[in-house]
Amino acid sequence: MLRDDLRTLWTEPPPPDVPGRVWRDWALLAAGLCGVILEVVLRDDVVWRPVAVALAVWMCLLLLWRRTHPLAMVALGFGAIILLELASLASGLRESVGLYTGVVVVVLVYALARWGAGRDIEVGIGVILVAFVLQVFTDNVTPPAEQGAGLVFLLMPLVLGASVRFRTTARERQLDQVRSRERERIARELHDTVAHHVSAMVIRAQAGRVLARTDPAAAVDALEGVEEEGARTLEEMRAMVAALRSRGTGAELAPLAGVADLERLVPAPGGRLRVDLRLDGDLDALPPQVDAAVYRIVQESVTNAMRHAVDATEVVVGVTGGPERVRVTVRDDGARTGRGRDGYGLVGLRERATLLGGELHAGPAADHGWQVEAELPRERADDGAHPRRRR
What we know:
alpha+beta; Heat Shock Protein 90; 10 helices; disordered C terminus
């Protein structure tokens, strides 16, 4: 079983989107170099002082590439330790060579488990163990119990890095599931819209066939109506293709909720929160997918305010329809605690807005409370790329 686990770990890919160098890396480097300087000035018991200083500075410099090249940094860091131990063994030295600042090597161990591929982790652990065994072999002063504690201290960052990696991967997987469910929900809503257009086309075509012999002009009007419905259906189908990234299962054929249904979100008098709904601009001819998205954004935001807003008394909802874009704002007047990152509901809303060509932002308001802002285009950018044919 251990062999199977090692084989599985060997094929594990590195985490995606490895971050580049940030200010914390330079701060860590500066702290390490300051530690080297302090030890050189204050300590008189440093063995092989130039070598010890060079090794400590080398360890600090390796921190700058620990995320992008974790195995190489571990190999270079612990390889230097191995060479130093071999030199100590050859010279007959029985004292420990190095500065206390060299403890920064544990950061390289953490980065190996956090950012390395599976094969990098296995090879890196091998290098670490070789360095430790050689150090134990050359150290005749440190008791075995302390050496065992040192191994535990050395491997703890490895466990911590693997734990952080697992938690991050699990959250990303949950976020992907939320995005997938939101796409499926959009696809079901668009399915209803397209079905409505196709039904209208069938009815108009049947009417045109009946009127073709008795009233040709009316039949032509019916055919033009079929053409209009067909063009709208093609637009909705293009939107469906953009939204449906994965295959859905079934369709819910309930009527789509939209701006006209926002009044249902206003709680009854006497509720904990008062919802102030403000509608402005042209909101009567929104595309079905935009209409449904506005309702979902307001619904999720009002629900979050009721659940998470501390000491809130009012939620102000504003929906403004412009000539090209629809703007939605939802803001409460309460305090927010424990909100370090977006919940899964906001992740789904942001995915929906992105698929429709818009954007959504959520966070603390300027003075107090929590605010959700979204802008959605009335029409997709590619809707005008296919002009309708006229007879």
